[in-house]
Structure formats: structure tokens, C-alpha cells
Write a structure and sequence with these properties.
The chain is mainly α and about 55 residues long. The chain has one domain. Helices cover about 80% and strands about 0% of the residues. The termini are far apart.
């Protein structure tokens, strides 16, 4: 699996209203992307996670 795949699965689950299931996949994407993807990409995933968590409150 790659960080791209985890991100895609997370986004699909989020759009389907299954955010609690999506968050661990987004965490996996962030972990796998560290050191492989540009810092801005990882920062974007962090921002996305914060937005999803805030929207779920």
C-alpha cells in the first residue's frame, strides 16, 4: 500500500459520511508519506484531518 492509496480510501469514506473509519486511514497516509512526499503534502493531510475532526464535533 502507498500513502496515496490510504489518502484516497480515507477521502472516499469521508465523502460517504464514514469519517470515523476514514481517520485511521488518513493517519496511515501521513505516516507513510513522511520522508517520501513533500512537506506541504503532509501538512495538507494534517489540515484535512483537523477539518474532519472539527466538522464531526
Amino acid at each position: 500500500e502507498s500513502f496515496w492509496n490510504f489518502e484516497l480510501k480515507a477521502r472516499l469514506l469521508h465523502r460517504a459520511g464514514r469519517t470515523p473509519e476514514a481517520l485511521p486511514l488518513l493517519d496511515s497516509a501521513m505516516a507513510l508519506a513522511e520522508g517520501k512526499a513533500p512537506k506541504e503534502y503532509v501538512d495538507g493531510l494534517v489540515t484535512t484531518k483537523k477539518e474532519w475532526v472539527e466538522a464531526g464535533k
